[in-house]
Amino acid sequence: MAELKPIPTSRFYIEFDGLTEKMVASVGEIAFEGEISGQDKPFSVSKYTMNYWQSTAGRQNNPNISIEVYLVKGDMDWYTWYKRCMPISEGGSGYWGLYRKSGSLTAYNSSDKAVLQWNIKNAWPQSYSVSDLAADGNEFVKETYDIVCEDIERVNPASFF
Predict the structure, then answer these.
(1) Considering only CA atoms, which of 74, 65, 63 is closest in space to residue 23?
(2) In whole angstroms, what is the distance from residue 144 CA to residue 96 CA?
(3) Beta bridge partners of 66
(4) What is the pTM of this model?
(5) Tell me: the pLDDT tens digits for 70-129?
(6) What is the DSSP letter of 44?
(7) What are residue 113's phi and psi, to 5 degrees?
(8) How many C-beta atoms surround the C-beta of residue 102 within 10 A?
(9) Residue 60's pLDDT is what?
């Protein structure tokens, strides 16, 4: 029987092509939902009143992830990726198709062994925001990027082998 040990939420690493060893504060919930359509009613009828049903399955929306990174002097890598993917009409470079990135999110146990991993395929930043700045604040400044991708797949981490 497998040993049941909770995995801490504070031990993780996320990277994308060319975006490695960054100061990531948090990774939000990974969310996507399947969709089934066509199951509500038959689409045709034939001799002897035989009804034919057809249902299809797929994704309702592309998977997305919210990533918070610390604003670090001189490091523009996340923001540059965002600007390259934004349409020209929105102040970006308009190269969304050229700058999609693949990556992975790895979770570690308390012994620093990789125990969960999700592979992320063809991701791009959809939105950007900066945390509040306040004279009486005591937090570090963070940027938030909402990342959309074509696919996220949970796999066994390489350290399992």
Answers:
(1) 74
(2) 19
(3) 146
(4) 0.79
(5) 999 999 999 999 999 999 998 889 888 899 999 999 999 988 999 999 999 999 999 999
(6) E
(7) -100, 130
(8) 15
(9) 54
